[in-house]
């Protein structure tokens, strides 16, 4: 229903802003029916403003866990699968991300997901950009990493 699709997890927004401030790039990859895309853009404008790349499935006619939707985000952000961490509440969507080489965190609650992502980041496989602004990002190329967060369904 519409209410569950438009649920705002404010902790996720704050989490995204914190990661962005630490130099990580942010992407949004969401399964959203074509008719909901405008509502999503309106109700999640602050989430979208934090993101470096956005893929709304209904606009692309691709849906998680199809391989092509993950590959589309890779192209848009210009990074390889091993440079990505995906957070989602669906085991099938996490498996889809892993199938294209991304690391995945199954969202089962704010605290658990944040702890798992921090564990992955501490391993140093996914690293923040070493500067801010477009010039710094352009100069770094693939050293600039992406964390992909999907707004959850209210769980």
Report what the structure shows.
By secondary structure, this protein is α/β, with parallel strands linked by helices. The protein contains 9 helices and 5 strands. A 5-stranded parallel beta sheet has the order 2-1-5-3-4, sandwiched between helices. The longest helix has 13 residues. The radius of gyration is 14 Å and the shape is globular.
Sheet having the most strands? 5 strands, parallel
- Taken from the alpha-carbon principal axes, the silhouette is globular
The number of helices is: 9
Report the radius of gyration as a whole number of Å.
14 Å
* Cα distance spanning the termini: 15 Å
Summarize the structure.
The chain has 155 residues and is of the alpha/beta class. It has helices spanning 2-5, 10-21, 37-43, 45-50, 57-60, 67-77, 91-99, 110-122, 133-140; strands at 25-30, 53-56, 84-88, 103-106, 146-149.
What labels describe this entry?
9 helices; about 15% strand; five-stranded parallel β-sheet; alpha/beta; globular; about 160 residues
Detail the topology: elements first, then pairings.
Layout: H1 2-5, H2 10-21, E1 25-30, H3 37-43, H4 45-50, E2 53-56, H5 57-60, H6 67-77, E3 84-88, H7 91-99, E4 103-106, H8 110-122, H9 133-140, E5 146-149
Parallel strand pairs: 1-2, 1-5, 3-4, 3-5
């Amino acid at each position: 229903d519409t209410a569950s699709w438009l649920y705002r997890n404010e902790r996720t927004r704050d989490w995204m802003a914190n990661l962005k401030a630490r130099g990580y790039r942010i992407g949004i990859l969401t399964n959203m029916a074509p008719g909901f895309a405008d509502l999503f853009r309106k109700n999640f404008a602050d989430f979208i403003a934090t993101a470096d790349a956005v893929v709304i499935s209904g606009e692309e006619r691709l849906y998680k866990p199809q391989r092509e939707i993950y590959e589309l985000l890779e192209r848009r952000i210009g990074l390889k699968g091993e440079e990505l961490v995906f957070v989602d509440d669906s085991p099938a969507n996490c498996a889809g991300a892993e199938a294209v080489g991304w690391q995945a965190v199954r969202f089962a609650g704010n605290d658990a997901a944040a702890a798992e992502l921090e564990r992955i980041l501490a391993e140093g496989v996914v690293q923040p950009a070493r500067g801010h602004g477009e010039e710094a990002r352009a100069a770094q190329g693939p050293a600039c990493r992406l964390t992909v967060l999907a707004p959850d369904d209210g769980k």
